[in-house]
Amino acid sequence: RPRIFSGIQPSGGLTLGNYLGALKRFVEKQDEGIETIYCLVDMHAITVWQDPDKLRQQTREGAAAFIAAGIDPARSILFNQSQVTAHAELGWIFNCVARMGWMSRMTQFKDKAGKNSENVSLGLFAYPALMAADILAYHATMVPVGEDQKQHLELTRDIAIKFNNDFGVDFFPVVKPIIEGAATRVMSLRDGTKKMSKSDPSDQSRINLTDDADTISKKIRKAKTDPEPLPDTLEGLKDRPEARNLVNIYAALAGHSAEQVIADFAGAQFGTFKPALADLAVAKLEPITTEMNRLMKDPAEIDRILGEGADRAEAIARPIVDQVYDIVGMIRSR
Ligand code: AQP
């Protein structure tokens, strides 16, 4: 039976990019009846500095977003990474399998470290090895992610293959990224060539799942665009990253293809298209925000759900990681 694993960092409030590229699709996979394991990856979050109280708050808010978006903790396993020590344990072993050269080629590391790579945490560099552990500790084979995670998943495959070769076993499966839909890469509202990101310093660049209707509308109306009306073919969006981004967001929210949106809005000015997009975004996001706010009133209940999810996750990961210790040659005598 296929098993899905995916995660989101509680490194800030979740954005429309996280929702369309990841969360919405996590729910679809759950509803297809596939075994789904979803994680708030708090240990990844601390690869850059997080205020402890905010980290707790963001982890609970992330869990509330999952549930509000349609993750059912009875059907999916939902937990925070640090409660299942198998991730850290396998992560260390993978640090010893992955090669420095592989890690140095990771574009996300280069982007996040910028010119200051001497001064970022060692954890940020090792991040993709921990991500491989997140997935492989469950022998998951399918990983729904946004386009930006493709390279990390290729590295996960390389780590699995090298581990199997180094120890002469056929233990870890080959992992397949699932990158699908109209919004696998939602771009910043201020710059159509940059990914929408929770850590972008400009709040105007993103829609947060906690934004109210008025804020969402204002951000969309103010989103950067060009002066041309919408074209009548997708081809016409080729060199118009901002216009293309808004069309893709509309398509993903409406559950249509981008072609369909272009057919419906061919020749429309942004003065027409943006209000339509704002109305659609509010209609889709407001119920989620309202439910998140309701869930956040009972943090103890969220913690209980995460703890229960961690118990179920642990029951799957523990025997797999115990076998890894055995394969590697570590004595387990108690
Ligand atoms: N802009 C995006 N478009 C589509 N998918 C996206 N994802 C993130 N941004 C977009 C997908 O969301 C999942 C969780 O991502 P993450 O929280 O692990 O971290 P990230 O990819 O680094 O996202 P952020 O928002 O940019 O966080 P920060 O700013 O902390 O680095 C992944 O499946 C990702 O593809």
TrEMBL record:
It is an enzyme of class 6 (ligase). SUPFAM superfamilies: Nucleotidylyl transferase. GO terms for cellular component: cytosol. Pfam families: tRNA-synt_1b. Its EC number is 6.1.1.2. It is found in: Cytoplasm. It catalyses: tRNA(Trp) + L-tryptophan + ATP = L-tryptophyl-tRNA(Trp) + AMP + diphosphate + H(+). A motif ('HIGH' region) lies at residues 10-18. L-tryptophan binds at residue 134. Keywords: Aminoacyl-tRNA synthetase, ATP-binding, Cytoplasm, Ligase, Nucleotide-binding, Protein biosynthesis. ATP binds at residues 9-11, 17-18, 146-148, 186, 195-199. The keyword Metal-binding does not apply. InterPro entries: aa-tRNA-synth_I_CS, aa-tRNA-synth_Ic, Rossmann-like_a/b/a_fold, Trp-tRNA-ligase, Trp-tRNA-ligase_bac-type, Trp-tRNA_synthetase. GO terms for molecular function: ATP binding; tryptophan-tRNA ligase activity. A motif ('KMSKS' region) lies at residues 195-199. One of its GO terms (biological process) is tryptophanyl-tRNA aminoacylation. PROSITE patterns: AA_TRNA_LIGASE_I (PS00178). Catalyzes the attachment of tryptophan to tRNA(Trp). PANTHER family: TRYPTOPHAN--TRNA LIGASE, MITOCHONDRIAL. Homodimer. Belongs to the class-I aminoacyl-tRNA synthetase family. This is Tryptophan--tRNA ligase. The lineage of its organism: Bacteria, Pseudomonadati, Pseudomonadota, Alphaproteobacteria, Rhodobacterales.
